[in-house]
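Continuing the series of single-chain predictions for the mutant panel. This is the parent chain; the variants come on the following pages.
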Amino acid sequence: MSVTITLREELADGLARQAQGRRMSLEEWATRILETAVSDDRGKIAWLELNSRRLALISKEYETGLTDAEAAELAVLQDAAAKACEPEDWKLLGRLSACEEQADYPSARTHD
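Parent structure:
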């Protein structure tokens, strides 16, 4: 399918500069950007569905309990959530460390 879009001049110029810097045509670069956006969106939708299931299982765990299969599924989903959040967790820990240093506050991690 062929699609034509109209861009503001400054956006088109910026894309053209980026494409040139990558030694690509403007069309190739724009296509790559759009493919990434669509792919990222699919990933977000998949994660939202999995996280929704995870939250439902957590709720059920406290309301009526889980079957063995549901407990195993929840463990897998909890692990996936932890892995997905880990990069941001490390950033937050770094910021906390910096704040503790500024406050001259001994970190709880030094007492381990």
